[in-house]
Design goal:
Elements: E1 2-6, H1 16-30, E2 34-38, E3 45-48, E4 51-57, H2 61-74, E5 78-81, H3 86-98, E6 103-106, H4 110-117, H5 122-134, E7 138-141, H6 144-152, E8 158-160, E9 183-187, H7 196-201, E10 207-211, H8 217-223, E11 228-231, H9 235-243, E12 247-250, H10 259-266, E13 271-273, H11 279-282, E14 289-291, H12 295-303, H13 308-314, H14 319-329, H15 335-339, H16 350-355
Parallel strand pairs: 1-2, 1-5, 5-6, 6-7, 7-8, 9-10, 9-12, 10-11, 12-13, 13-14
Antiparallel strand pairs: 3-4
Amino acid sequence: MHVLIITDAWSPQVNGVVRTLQTTTSQLASLGHRVTVIGPDRFSTIPCPGYTEIRLSVNVTRRLRMMLDRAAREGIDCVHIATEGPLGWGARAWCLKRKIAYTTSCHTRFPEYIRMRAPIPLRWSYAWLRRFHGAATRTLVRSQSQLDELSARGFQHLAIWPGGVDTELFRPRAKRHEFEGPVAMYVGRVAAEKSIEDFLAAPFAGSKVVVGDGPSRARLQAQYPEAIFTGFRHGESLAQTLNEADVFVFPSQTDTLGLVMLEAMACGVPVAAYPVCGPKDVVENGKTGVLHHDLSVAMRGALDLGGAACRQYAERFSWLASSQRFLELLQPLDAHALMSPPDRRAGDSPAFRKAC
């Protein structure tokens, strides 16, 4: 099977969306499938306003159409539009013009991210998001909580595409005692939507470690000089660092899943988090972590939990199972649609012209 994926999130970005797409692509290849990814690495980009680590593709119209037409001529079996950025809108317009069925995925709570940076009402952002996903045969979401929330906002044709974890890389290891214990740790982007300040401000008798980078790091590092900021760590280094933690803290209230919680649990580290979408779908409260509206209570409670249950739970999630589920949810194309000329009467959507 030849799968075409269009995404605005790709390396060198470092986040859960990129990790999911890259790992899924690798898994599909190992299963014998061909995957073509059209991402921002093929286009000129500019920094996203308010979030310079993320770059947005510009002047995509003609080049993107050429890439999509070339892929169609080579023969594709499924089209998946992974993100709602300029490339996503452009691919959506191309599919609609050619009457090609496609799937989409919704990885983040994008409207909440926008509201943290600009006074835009959530109903406007969700209406924009609903329009983007509305024409898809199926929209893949990360958890039951996200599915319920989007359904309540009028989204249709939703299906759960669960996350995965590399249990060979992320496994219990001997501590090197890099930090003075007990150790409470956060791993991920250091940005406003992650609510890291809640973690840093919560009372905790031990070391607080922030692994990652982002636009909020300089401010938080200056405001909380007692905390340890390591910057990004990857691969074996990240896995070893996670093993240094006694409790993994996930303060975000805007995530749809939070793969890093599974990675921490695979290392035998219990999670402390709020009882919100994401943690509710990953953490077994009182067994693999503690969910509480008071983060300091959750952190203290998680310290009393053992790591065996965390590891056992994480082993239920594999990237192979996640990737196979992704394949099941894709929409096979009508071969005749690929051979037919574009519908010139349809024209470009206003959203497509604006995005490009």
